[in-house]
Design goal:
Layout lengths: L2 H9 L10 H15 L5 E2 L3 H11 L52 H11 L4 E8 L8 E7 L4 E10 L5 H6 L12 E6 L5 E8 L9 E8 L4 E8 L18 H9 L4 H5 L18 H8 L6 E8 L2 E7 L4 E9 L3 H4 L7 E2 L5 E8 L8 E8 L5 E7 L17 H9 L6
Parallel strand pairs: 1-5
Antiparallel strand pairs: 2-3, 3-4, 4-8, 5-6, 6-7, 7-8, 9-10, 10-11, 11-15, 12-13, 13-14, 14-15
Helix pairs in contact: 3-6
Length: 419
Amino acid sequence: MPFEDELGNALRRAGDGFTTDGHALVEAGERRGRRLVARRRAAVVGGSVLTLAVVATGGAYTGGLFGGAGGSGGPGRVDVAAPPELSAGPTKAPARGGPSSRTGSGAVSGAQLVSVFKELLPGGKVTDTEASGTGAPQGPSVRGVYDDGEGAAQIGVTLMRTDPDGRTTAGALECPDANTTDYEDCATETLADGSKVMVFQGYEYPDRREPTKLWRATLVTRQGFQVEVMEWNAPAEKGAKVSRPAPPLGPAQLKAFAASPLWHPALGDLPAAPAEGPAPDPVGADARAVLESLVPKNGITVASKGGGGDYAYLVLDDGKGASLVQVNVQEQMGAALGGHMGGATTLPDGTKVLETKQPGEKGGKGVLWWSADTLRPDGRRVVVSAFNTGNQSKPATRKEPVLTMEQLRTIALDPKWFG
């Protein structure tokens, strides 16, 4: 798959829906749940924001965003239209259900985006560039291998329009729960102009089976301009040896790179995103509230929680170690599951129950994964899983999950899931 498609799909979280495969269901649900966790946005004030604003609006035009005349694009300006003036409020999005194409008029070419990409990097050498302009079906993006003398590193940028007040934007700007996801650092800030930016410092593989680091900045302006910058400490995101201890751009540089108005001509050539409207109603009752109400209260505390709607998780602790418990709720799954429920027990009312015990799949040493998968005759499905760790990517923290298989089964069969 071309880089632009792969990265664009990742940004849109297109793979975060439910799947008929049990393994993928849990992983997709975990990602979806992390998006839904409510996070307080940090309003940043003072010198750090002022410095970033000055760099982003002025320094970007000096032939190198971070190093004055040292930019690898040289002292010349990129031959694109000047960035449009920013209005005080957001760009009005088209009515709900309007066009959502990522294709613009083609006014900004891939070659022009490569020039911007080079100009914004602080010196060094840029090779192996690939880009698509605003007329490409997949939308504008650019990538290349950057070497500042400390080791070659892949850097990629994707540009798109979004509803700045929509739920997709909120999910893209929230940090994952550190209790369930292993990463170095993550922070979300509100800038002086109302833009929001998240900087995430983590790994290409959360279980760290390879030492490749992935850092990214996601910035959304009040107009609905979204810039996603991703960088690695290797010349490719996968399958390449690590070339340096960390990606080349630090957190402040990532923010400034994403905030540069040199990206605005391309973003302004794209159609505004449709307004998203309210989040869809969940299948039944709110999953997190139901899960909390059903877990045993005998000495078990909730260390962390997240999700809502039809996915939720809790990190439980009974004093013997943390244990992750999560639930997925679906409708109309009878035909879609096919032979997945083979070996299940059928209850008198026709409900099928499939209990499994297997090793974890996220790389944590000694992790066990227990699950109770239930399918009602009308196609409604509830899957409850438990692990003997609070984070699947880290080693086991206890001998077995905090809940027994019988408790998982009882929770999954409870009628509260559907109101």
